[in-house]
Amino acid sequence: MSLLNTKFKYFTLFIIVTATLITSCSKDEVKVVTAQDEVSALQPVDTITKGNYSFYIFKKDTGDFVVGYNEVYIQVKNNATGKYVEDANLSWKPLMHMTSMSHACPYSAISKVANTNTLYKGYFIFIMASNSSEYWEIAYNYVNGNDTIAKVSNQVTVAASTGKVRYKSFKGADNISYFLALVEPSKPQVGTNDVKAYLYKKVDMLTFSPVENYTIQIDPRMPDMDNHTSPNNVNLTYDSFTQSYQGKVNLTMTGYWKINLIVQDASNTVLKGEAITGTTTASSIYFELEF
Ligand SMILES: [Cu+2]
Hints:
Blueprint: H1 3-28, H2 35-38, E1 43-50, E2 53-59, E3 65-66, E4 68-78, E5 83-84, E6 89-97, E7 102-103, E8 111-112, E9 120-126, E10 135-144, E11 147-156, E12 158-159, E13 167-171, E14 177-184, E15 191-204, E16 207-210, E17 215-221, E18 234-239, E19 244-251, E20 256-264, E21 270-272, E22 286-290
Parallel strand pairs: 3-12
Antiparallel strand pairs: 1-2, 2-4, 4-5, 4-9, 6-7, 6-10, 8-9, 10-11, 13-14, 14-15, 15-16, 15-19, 17-18, 17-20, 18-19, 20-21, 20-22
The protein binds copper (II) ion.
């Protein structure tokens, strides 16, 4: 191998290494995702500060809590360090203070939102709207092992739900109170839509638990168009991983749909709802979709 050849080889290597370094440097300039970025698409609902900690509460859709399903996002900031907590163990408790009694509502545990550093989420299914003398209070708890790091609470307003029906409470044939909330589809489209709903029962005034292994039959109809239905719908069955009911609804055209429901227990006993047949044009429990 000649000297010139070797020199040329080293020169080529030098060029490649330099080019690689420059490329990696510019790759490292990817924008750092801040705590603010992680909530930029959310609407603030509440801020509670106590001691060194601030709790920031958000929702996706509106800034208000409403009767029915509410997906709630949380950030916790340590005001002493100015940093958002990234490994918080969070819990919460909703309570409605009524004139003569208090009660809770169905709600989830709080978990970290995947692929975020500072964001946590869970849901409430509020079962009553607040009014001038009766209000909801939510207590948030941040613990580390057995130590309570921060405990805060605030009164919140829960508005009556307006618009299309996505939440129903009913008393079953078994005399148990049930609470049924539609989560998906949030943006219905023509064709097959995934359906997700939560079904809870009241154990006592403070305890509401997810109901397992029931079936929720769905019969989508267009009341404005001779009450026609659609083919290939899939009844909702229990998914133990998400503790929710999942199925499919086929919306063959845009417009107003009434999703008629029949709730059956694990031994297929109908607890609530009627089949659409003869003079029965709608079930006593249903969801509504319009798009
Ligand atoms: Cu109440």
